[in-house]
Amino acid sequence: MDLEKLTIGQMAELNHVSEQTLRLYDREGLMKPRYTDPVTGYRYYHITQSARLDMIQTMKVYGMTLRQIRAALSNSDAQALVSLLLEQASQVEQRIAELSRSRAAIMRTLENYKKVEAMPKNGEIFLEYMPQRRIYSYSCQMNYFDQDESGYEYMLRQLKGQLASSRLPMSYFSNIGTIIRKEHLLSGRLYSNEVFLFVDEEVPGCELLPAGSYVCLCSEDFSQEAENVERLLAYVGEHHCQVAGDYLCEVMIDFPMLEFDRRQMFYKTQIPVRFFG
Description:
Blueprint: H1 8-15, H2 19-27, E1 35-36, E2 43-44, H3 50-61, H4 66-73, H5 78-118, E3 126-130, E4 133-139, H6 149-165, E5 176-180, H7 182-187, E6 194-198, E7 207-209, E8 212-219, H8 225-238, E9 241-243, E10 247-257, E11 262-275
Antiparallel strand pairs: 1-2, 3-8, 4-6, 4-7, 5-6, 5-10, 8-11, 9-11, 10-11
């Protein structure tokens, strides 16, 4: 093996890359063969070019594009390379944060599936302790209880638009619901112009829900929510407890039925309560 005239196959094998990779780097101007035979046209690499190949592979590990790598290798300014690496490190941190949020959304959905399996599904009202939670809500110009499924979908579009304009992660758009504020709840008026989603961290405009006891009722029927609210309020009155905050309807599982372009939901209606001594 002539280390000063390595074929593309030999160069690839020595550096544990494919021949296709070397051809790509050649086309992109990242690393061309050192020598071309004027008679045969065969092109050969020099073993010392492995150092450049190592740098290309290292930059790929950093997550840099081939265009960024080409620019970095064509610039002999060390400070420019440092600046590029600092920028790349910042982008990697952003991606890590995005992936962490995505993982949290996945784990929350899986946890909801576990919870749903254990929840009463026969219209039974039950008491549940909820830990402290954070929500991000958006006020719409319509009352949820005056809408059908189309109106609900439109309210969700408005919430999604607010997320985008506020530059909040779309991974949060996976555990959503509606709110009836306490004053409307106590007045007996079914009025909800707010849709919400849970957030894992404090973000501008988010609201803290204190830990406490909630009376809850689960359902899969979109049209039964108004009836479920009335049942929960009746339960509160019959069991000598007091409404302690806003009503939430939390969508635990939301699986679109692709055949019919609609949602198949399992939701939990919940009212925070305080018990009298």
